Amino acid sequence: MNPLSSFLLTFLLLLLPPHITLSSPSRASKVFEAWCKQHGRTYSSEAEKLYRFRVFQDNFDFVTQYNDMGNSSYTLSLNAFADLTHHEFKASRLGFSPAGMSLNRQRPFRGPGSVVREIPSEMDWRKKGAVTHVKDQGSCGACWSFSATGAIEGINKIVTGSLVSLSEQELVDCDRSFDSGCEGGLMDYAYQFIIDNHGIDTEDDYPYQGRERSCIKEKLKRHVVTIDGYTDVQTNNEKQLLQAVATQPVSVGICGSERAFQLYSKGIFTGPCSTSLDHAVLIVGYGSENGVDYWIVKNSWGTRWGMDGYVHMLRNSGNSQGLCGINMLASYPTKTRPNPPPPPPPGPTRCDIFTYCGEGETCCCARHLLGICISWKCCELNSAVCCKDHLHCCPLDYPICDTKRIQCLKRAGNGTRMEALERRSSSGKSGSWSSIVEAWIL
After folding, report:
1. Model pTM score
2. Catalytic residue (one of 279, 312, 390, 392)
3. What is the pLDDT of residues 142-154, one digit of tens each?
């Protein structure tokens, strides 16, 4: 090992929590290698791999000790998060921000459509086709957006008969008045954004990226699914929550930061956990097993967590706030009207009465006379910015043209400028401008 690697290894090991030990290294090492292969995990250096092994072994010990007790209704496993410290896990997989919300809930549980006279003994909206596939928020704290879209997907299926997977990325990018993208948000604010926007786009058209980007305003106008409003279930009222879930999938906040929740595998999760809400999920049903009542909860951590992405959480816990605070902040969207008709398929982009560019392209004026464009060129980027030199265009994410340095820039949050990762000419092809710019023949 060279001196630099030795130094990095020592530094990484010093970062480990002091309680981590190296018990049973040979057994844990074999399990770790198998786990890496199963999850396709590779590391950039031997030092990083050893650090991750130390973290993995601590989680290995925690899971083994817990499962060996054998007196719980749920079990743990070395799932996809087994090489993360608990601090790393909490920093990357949560994102619910309920501060101030519980004191200002303006839409109480009401409405004739929400009343169920005879509540079924069990309900599973997955069996009724009202739940889309389990999604993965990645290391972006956008759980609130997944909870909101999941609830809207459910009511849309119930009202229209069509199950459509909706765009979390649109909420992450565009819903910025009160929500904060990967830094957290609230489902009620997401519902209000969609109401104000007159709808939301599909996941296929505006796919999830796991990071914040500039809002794509053209896609913001694609109102594929609409909602009429939203309703808040009365805080700490489990009977009303049960009635709501009997009607449709419901968004809730929970405490998802417990270590046992990180490594949950199967069974009815009974805690322990606090009621400090920091994660958003979706209740898609309820049931009972051996006399123990539970909620069926859809998470947004992918299918390699829990029971293919789901967890059964204790219901009727005897605490009005519910296990992990699940009764504290529940809400759901309302919908009675059909969705708007789909827009006509996009066609060519019209530059003027005589000139068109292709679908998804942007018209850029190449020559003008007395303020009137007399010659057009097409930029192979949607909603692009045409540069003043009439030779280049820039992507919407990097809208500042620096024609002297031949760069596309974007303005960072602190007002500074950053060079674009991609540089494009009017042809729309990536690469170094000095090698790909072709003069326009006018």
Report:
1. 0.75
2. 279
3. 999 999 999 999 9
